[in-house]
Each structure stands twice: as C-alpha cells, then as structure tokens.
Amino acid sequence: MKKFFKFYRTNFISLLFIAIFFTSQLQPAFSGEFSSAVESSRSETEAQDEEKTVSTSSSESEDNSLIVFLAKIAGVFWYYNNFTVRYTSFPYKYENLTYMKWAETETNPEAKTKSNRYSASDSFFYLVDLGTGNEFCFEGLFFPIIGPYFENLVISEQDNFFDETYGNIRLGAQLSILQSNLITITGIVQWSRWYGNISEVLKSSGLALGMDFRFYPLKPLGFQWKFCWQEFDENVYLRDSLLSAGIFLQRYEIFVGWKLLEVGNSENLKPTKTWNGISAGCRVYF
Predict the structure, then answer these.
(1) H helix and E strand count, the chain
(2) What is the pTM of this model?
(3) I need a labelling partner for 91 at 20 to 30 A (CA). Which of 60, 74, 157, 199 fits?
(4) Do 135 and 281 meet the contact criterion of CB atoms below 8 Å apart?
(5) Rounded to 5 degrees, what are φ and ψ at 24?
C-alpha cells in the first residue's frame, strides 16, 4: 500500500496528462438514462433577459454604511485567519494539535508545519437506477488562501455497462473562507466538461460552483460535505453532492459516504431526475 501511494504521488502529473489524453480520444455517442434526463431538462424557449431597476433612499444608504463597516471587520478576521495559518503534514499527526496552528499560538511549538497542504482521493460509488462509477479528486492550497481543485467523474450505466460510459472533468480553484482545527470551509470555482457517450447531448462546457466543508471533531474521525452546481446551455443544471465520514490511519483516510446526482432545469429549478447511492474510497494527505 505504501509503495502504491508513493508511486501515485510521484507520478501524479503524468497520470493526469494520460487521463486527459484518453478523455480526448473518446468518441461521442448517444447515451441512455443520463442523457434522457438531460434532454428533458432543456428549456423549450430561450430565457429572456430582464432589466432590473434599483432604487436608493437615505435609509438604504445608512444600511449600506453598516454593511460596509461589518464587511471591513470580517475582512480583517479573514485576513488573520487565512494568512497566518500553518499546516501539519496530515490531520491528527501531533497530540493536542489537530491540523493547523497560527503564528502567535504556543500549541505544540515542536510541531513541524508548512504554508501549503494537499490531498488526493479516489472512490467508487453506486447510484440506484443509474449505475456504478469512479470519482477522483486532487485538491490543495498553494498558499493558505488559494489552490487547485481538480475532479474527474466516470459513470457506467447498469443497463448497458460497456456502451453507456461517460464522465465529467472539472478543473478549477478553491478559495479559503474559514479555517480552524474544528471546521474548514472553502469555495470552489471550476470549468466543467462532460465527455464520452454523453458529449453529443451536453456539447457545451459549463461553470461549476461549489463548497467544501471539512470537520475534525476528535481523533481519528473526519467528516466532509462537498457539493457543486453545474450550469450548461439551454438552462440545464447538474447538482453533485457527497457527504462522507472517515477514519484516519496516519496520513491515509478511509471514508464512506452518501452521494447524490441530480439533473434539472435551472429556469424553474425543477429537477428532472435524481439518483442517490453509496460511495467509499481512500484519501491521502501530503
């Protein structure tokens, strides 16, 4: 297992380029259950742009001043919280120090820390009435405030395992919102593209917005909830969510969770089809 993760970390960039290469070689064809839901989610008419007018008043100006004042206070707190934080190699490495410490704190002064952190995970899932799949995620922070968030999802439909296989690659970044030893929150912005048998239906690239919540209550437990909203042409949206619980074994986290995938129309926020199922995998921190 250690040799596997050592190889995985050393050759990560090469594996990423190989995955993107094979992704580009997949030939488009019509898919089944998933594409039917996408087709049903399209708007029959294009949405009309509506002009919005904004009225101002003296009372609103006072409210705005208060909002600006509170925003400045929040900005100072955010700056201190994110720019002075340092990370250990992985959660629960040291006693009395979950994962992070700040410049002025005296908690475990002997603990070795750094200004960046990364993790990579791979998991398998089963969605009822849809099929099975694999989900890979590489994320981290180059600096305490911003870093990469790359994901790749592959789905094989249960009724036609070999012919109905497609995937979704999302490349983007995350921005720190709140960091603490109990809970961390990041916001995610990504470019999204579906490939394989579904690409004839979802031809355009889309925008994915999401958040990642991580909770470290006590050793060796860890919890995560991540979700994203993807928007495509013709008002098609996709919602992807994963709620998981894990156990830490040194720098490795074994987790199980509940996954949701939904397709719908964003014009009326009406879901066309929703699938739920279980997920299980492993995450390594470095």
Answers:
(1) 4, 12
(2) 0.78
(3) 74
(4) yes
(5) -70, -20
